[in-house]
């Protein structure tokens, strides 16, 4: 093992690895499976983990100049999703089996809508810990999308918004959403 002291990585981070003939966890050295999986250690407090991931591991999805050319007709939105047992896929990164009723989901998302409208919090901050979509790790940011890329109700609501504007509660097959138009 070789420890390096670079300013871009923590001093305990190993940046050079010895040759390994058998890579663990189906992780080939050439990265050919293009998958990355991580499970928190047993006993990890989920609330602390959510806060940490939201604060230190969210993505900035602003495109560079080269990618900007491919964005004509596209918009960028973030959303907060609350699923219920009647949702298309009633599971999420937060809950393996979502059993709440549609009425319960509606009450939950109305509470979030109220907090956003009252300025108590932002959609992005709430999405990190409360959204049932995997985009939570990116503050709900879905990146850029065009017409025909999303479910009809979601698309219609998204394209009707101006940048910085937040939607009312939108229902799709996925569940209940609040959408914020970012760009």
Descriptive notes:
This is Peptidyl-prolyl cis-trans isomerase. Keywords: Isomerase, Rotamase. Its EC number is 5.2.1.8. This protein has 183 residues and is an alpha+beta fold. The protein has a domain at 73-181: Chitinase A, domain 3 (Roll). It has helices spanning 46-56, 65-68, 102-117, 123-130, 152-160; strands spanning 2-3, 14-16, 75-82, 141-145, 170-172, 175-181. The strands form 2 sheets. The chain has a 4-stranded antiparallel β-sheet, sandwiched between helices. A two-stranded antiparallel sheet has the order 1-2. A hairpin with a 2-residue loop joins strand 5 (170-172) and strand 6 (175-181). Residues 1-18 and 20-28 have low confidence and may be disordered.
